[in-house]
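1st attempt posting a full record on here, be nice pls
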Amino acid sequence: MRRQRMMKIAVIGAGTMGNGITHVFAQAGYAVSLIDVSQLLLDKAIQTITKNLDRQIAKGTITENQKNAALANIVAHTDMAEGVRDTDVVIEAATENLALKLKIFGELDRLTPPQTILATNTSSLSITKIAAATKRPQQVIGMHFMNPVPMMKLVEIINGYATSPDVTQTVVDLAQKVGKVPCVVKDYPGFTLNRILIPMINEAVWILQEGIAGVEEIDTIMKLAAAHPMGPLQLADLIGLDICLSILNVLHEGFGNPKYAPCPLLVNMVTAGNLGVKSGEGFYVYTAGSKDLVVSSRFGK
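the predicted structure (as C-alpha cells):
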C-alpha cells in the first residue's frame, strides 16, 4: 500500500500567530514555508520557535532530535511566489486588517495552483469577503488558531458562503493531525468564540468605567465564580486591547446592534497606546522579567 504524501504548508506572517502555527506543523512532520516581507521578523520567528522547542525539551515532552527535525522542516522566505510554490495549504496569519488580507488573497490566488486551499487565521473578519478577492471561493476557509498556538488545543474552522464541504473536511482532518480539536462554525461577525468572549470583556471594561468594581475585583470574581483561568481584564491585556477593540467594531458594524458598542474607556486606552502586554501597560503593568501582576496606577484605589 502506497504511503500518502504529507501536505506542504505555507504560513504567511512571522508574528506571534504565524510562528506558533509554523511550530505546530513543523513539529508534526510537515514541510513548512514561513513567509514574511521582513527577514528580521523571520529570524526572530525562528528564534522564538527554537526557544519554545527548548522549553518542551526541558519539560521532557520532546527530544533534542525531535527539535532538530522540526527546525529542519521550516524554510523561511521573503519572496511569496517562491514560498507558496507547489503548496497544498496556505495559512495566512498577517495583521488583522481587511485591506491587507484582501491584497494577500488576491496574490495567493494568482501564485498558487488552483487546487491549493487558502486559509485565513482571522479572528473575526468575514471569510466570504476575503474569499471574494479570489477566483476560487470554494477553496477559501477560516482556520482560527488560539494563542499560544503550541499550547492551545482549539481551532475554530469557519466556512465561508461558498466553501466546499471537501475543503472543510480536509482542513478538519489537518487540524486533528497536528493534535488540535477543530470546531466547525459559520461565517458571521466574530464567528462563535469572539462573539461570546469579546462582549464579555467589553462588559468588564464598562463595569470598571462605571466604578462598580476595580480591576482586581472584576478579575477575581470571574476567576473564582466562573472558574476562568484568568480574569477578563487580564485576558484583554494578553489578547491586546487594540485587537479587542477591532473585533468589537466588526461586531458592532456587522450586526448594527448597540450592545456591541465599544466602551469609551477601552477606546481611550487604545488611542493612548496602552494596549496591554505588548505595550507594557493596559489594565495591568508588565515589567520584563517579573511575573507579578500589578494593577496600573490609573486604576489604583
